[in-house]
Amino acid sequence: MNFRFPGCRATDEAAPDEQAAALADLAYDAAAGRLAEQRERLEGLRTRATALLGVTGGVITFATGIGLFGENNGGTRVLPEWCLYSLMGVLLLLGLSVTIVLRPTPDRTDKSWSHGPPTDLLLGGAKAHEDARVVKARAAESMMHAAEDINGPHLRRCGHAYGAAAALLGVELLLVVLGVASVHW
Fold first, then answer.
1. pLDDT in tens, 2-35
2. Which ranges of the chain would DSSP assign to H, the alpha helix?
3. Are the C-beta atoms of residues 84 and 69 closer than 8 Å to each other?
4. Checking phi first, is residue 161 left (phi over 0); if not, alpha (psi -120 to 50) or beta?
5. I need a labelling partner for 101 at 20 to 30 A (CA). Which of 11, 76, 128, 176 fits?
């Protein structure tokens, strides 16, 4: 089988150094791409969480504007107390969930998010005059570790928090409808 990589011969007998260099480049590019994809996913989650927070604010503004949180002309509440306290709890949980998604990622020294290749590893290899493919292979390994063990759990937490916030928005709307229905029927 003949594979063609930049810098490699189109034969099965490509020089081991050329193969190793091509594989190191491939691994490095794949690992860097994985980190970039994770960063894009996190940015997407944050954008949706911000929009969800805006929708929540709109629902509360609408409900307040039509007087759902006050008393009507007859002196009776528009929404029962159980509904008001439930809405308050849901709003607090929703705000907490969105805050988890929107909190900034600390720098690499914190080991809670990795944005790109480890520059200390690259510069250390250059200072030690190591072979570029060895340094690239180590950097790729470090980035894959970061993608799996550091960024992955953080991204999953943010995804779960966003899912919880979206579900809580549905609960908020349901509580408003149930509260109005329990008073008027």
1. 444 455 444 455 567 788 888 888 988 999 999 9
2. 16-65, 81-102, 119-127, 132-145, 152-184
3. yes
4. alpha
5. 176
Question: Cα 143 to the chain's mean position, in Å?
Answer: 17
Structure pTM? 0.75
> What letter would DSSP give residue 1?
-
pLDDT at 1: 39
Separation CA 10–CA 22 (nearest Å): 13
Which of 119, 56, 58, 51 lies closest to 90 in space, CA to CA? 56
Query: Can you tell me whether residue 71 is helix, strand or coil?
Result: strand
Q: What is the CA radius of gyration of the chain?
A: 27
Tokens describing residue 167:
């579900």
